[in-house]
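Reading a protein record of the kind used here takes only a little practice. The record below shows the convention in full.

——
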Amino acid sequence: MHFDLQKIIGEAKHGNPKAFRQLVEHYQQPAFSFAFRMLASEEDARDVVQESFINIWRKINTYDINKNFKSWMYRIVYNKSIDALRSIKRRDEISLDDKLYKLIDKASQEEDTRLENKEAEELIRIMTMDLPEKQKLIFTLRDLQDLNVEETIEISGMKEEVIKSNLYHARKAIREKMQTIMNYQMEEK
């Protein structure tokens, strides 16, 4: 079945719930992936995606058909993710560093001390949690979602120089955390 985005959005703008369901089915996975990488929690990501699509349904009439829908959607998911992150930070009792060191301990206790892909992804998600919002957004869009600069500009509303600067600082912070982890592992041996 062919996915005609313009037609589906047009029908959704006229209140067709089946058309909107097609949008949700088509874009739910990329939205979830983005939210999960921002939040590092499946449950929180599911909630954010659900809230985002409710928001999209409410605002579909304001969507400019000449703009990139995926970028518009990512912007809404990003805003909902930031709201969720602020809420999570208030309710989190265990610091992210504690979670990070527990994950490292778990990995180093295994027979094979290399981190599995799943554990490496979890480690990266945890390391991004402490990044400032702009750095986290840019790192997630560019390095985790593999979006290009133009898409990142459209979603973030930032200029290319600002994006490059935030990406540089995010990568530097993550490298420093990785170095700390390596040092921690060396001390444990």
